[in-house]
Here is the input.
Amino acid sequence: MARVRDILEHKGADVVTCGPQDSVLQAAHVMNQHGIGAVVVVEGTQLIGIFTERDVLRRVVAAGRDPAATLVRDVMTQPVISCTPDTRVDECRVIITARRVRHLPIVQEGALCGIVTSGDVLARQLKEQQEALEYLNSWTHDGR
Here is the structure.
């Protein structure tokens, strides 16, 4: 069974972060610049929150807040739902579905070491299913 570390080996461990004192506008610019839907909020090396497109929509735009004057710490999602490199991919799918999140920071021994998205999990599971189908197909054709 695939583990989160397998996804990170393929996609890399880079994580885009921001600080809690950054403005929402700064964080939105960072997300746009990187083409991503979330930034992990860190204070020093400590993971303290996550700031997502959903937070922008619900906690800033819908609340009528000024993105240039609103700090990330005031509108970020916390506590953060995370997992470890040893977490099975199917467990990540359950967490993502049950908790209705799209981004899971990966933490090992208190240190941020990556992030996986719902898309990463889906792609990995589709790859495993394709490999299983190919194996079964070759087995049934070779077994005749």
